[in-house]
Design brief:
Blueprint: H1 2-24, H2 32-71, H3 76-102, H4 109-135
Amino acid sequence: MAGFLLIALGLYQGGFQASNLIGSLNPAPTHLPEWLGVLPRILGEFLAQSIALMVIGVCVLLSGRAIRWFFERDSRLFRTIVMLVVAAWSSQIFYEASQILIRPTLAYERLVFGIVIGIFLTIASFLITMVLHRKYHSFFREKVAKVEEG
């Protein structure tokens, strides 16, 4: 529940910031082309304000799932750990993207750097979890195959 609450609060903060931006536009856009002109900035403000709490909420959800898999001795724990690393790093990528949407003249090197580091972190966490899975495979129960009755 805490994870869902954090995600909801992040969405609220992002929506609040986006609505404040829309209210501060002078003159307010009235036609579709004008709205399309300010839409990237509105989306950028929404992302910048909401992404931190949303990612923390997702990480809380994934952490709860990982704890469950650990106590159930389920090997899906390792997949969940990789997803947790990806979710945690994605906040950096989304934040950099939001800054470019807010200020289109910003350089994109930080975004590209964040994506490249994210790829390396994902590969590293995948390899580490593979090694851990092999080392501790006896800890995890084998799944019992279901026998179909004919």
